[in-house]
Amino acid sequence: MATRPFLSRLSEGDSEQVELKAAPKPEEIGRSVCAFLNTKGGTLLVGAGPGKVIGVKSPARWVETLQRHLAEKLSPQALWSIDVEDHEGRSVIVIDVPQGAEPPYVYEDEIFVRAGASTQTASVRQITELIERRHAQAVRWERLPALGTDLQDLDEDEIRQTAQEGRTHRFHRFRDAESTEGILEDLNLSRGGSLLNSAVVLFGRIPTRRFSQLRVRLARFSGEHEMEDSRVLEQNAVSVIGQVESFLRQHVAISSALTDSVRRADKPAYPWLALREALMNAIVHRDYAAFDGGISISIYSDRIEFWSSGELPDGMTVRDLKEERISRLRNPDIAHVFWLRGFVEAFGTGAARILKQCALAGLPEPEWRVGGGGVRLIIRSALAAATPPAELNSRQRALLESLRSGDPVTVAEYSRQYAPNVSDRQARSDLSQLTSWGYLRREGRGPSTVYVRTPRRI
Hints:
The protein is an alpha+beta fold. It is 36% helix and 22% strand. A hairpin with a 2-residue loop joins strand 3 and strand 4.
């Protein structure tokens, strides 16, 4: 079933970063995707109208059609992701488009931009601004030349595998898919015959010889300070994923229970999808320019902590991180390769997916902390949620006893039905506590905010 934020976007209608399309018309969608790329990014909801779900028949076929159409008609090739969300038996195609890193983008020889809630052809002034923005973005760290590095320092098998998967699953067009140099040029990992830093990050044979900050540190603690196992990984970003997942599977606890069929059901202490999303976010969004940075993953008895160097994008808060759908990519070239390889399926939904997976597993709400040159994500286990830090008050207990898993409640409903004699501030505090203890999960923002009951029992 679709999430509440999905429904709230329908009720809000078209805006600068949301557009509703009743039917999957490739030409209209192409113009809108082009406009979102050239502006601030955005989301298209295809098969939806203001406040209602219309639905798209044969959504899988339309997803492939739209993927192929956008790959062929948009230039330069760009990042966007297509997903299908279902609501009451009807399918909506969701197209998420991050702000493009290579403006101006062209769709069928025209340049489009977003103006308020509409898509329009760019003016001469707007085209000039887009070109200026492109030059300003070209100096980011991943685009700097990796001096003294040549093709022998890269894993050519992984480069060719990327091209193969990109052509097969993402319909990515390579001018010369048989040439390693050509593939790197098309992926913006090489320029003028010189390899860029991003090529070393993604495909370097031993990338830490050049950039020590690429190391990934893994640790398993028996207490808060007693280390049972630790490793330092020095592979490239593409290869390191399997090594991290192997370490997590080795050390994440597995619980067993007998099912109705008297068979044992093994369940990890953390949802794998949440852990994988946390890893992808750490690799794709970290600040690679920080020479004292890196990635560290620490496994404790009651939690797993993911730390990566870098601050949140300017003007973005932890609340925005959890509630926004559109991603502001720090390393779009690296993110593009991860998308082509299928490691990342959608942009801007990572935090929301982590929150949802943990809530479905009955875990406390994950916590993001920003400071000290990095972002730390703390995912706590059911063990941490076993005993709330305080007793449930009568209002909270009455709410939990009346709701079934998946039932939503708003602040106004809670205040009216369960907390009529306390202040609005106290009512919100009650719901925030229940969220932090894993009984509720928060969805939406502003007036659309709801709290949804999780499977966790009192």
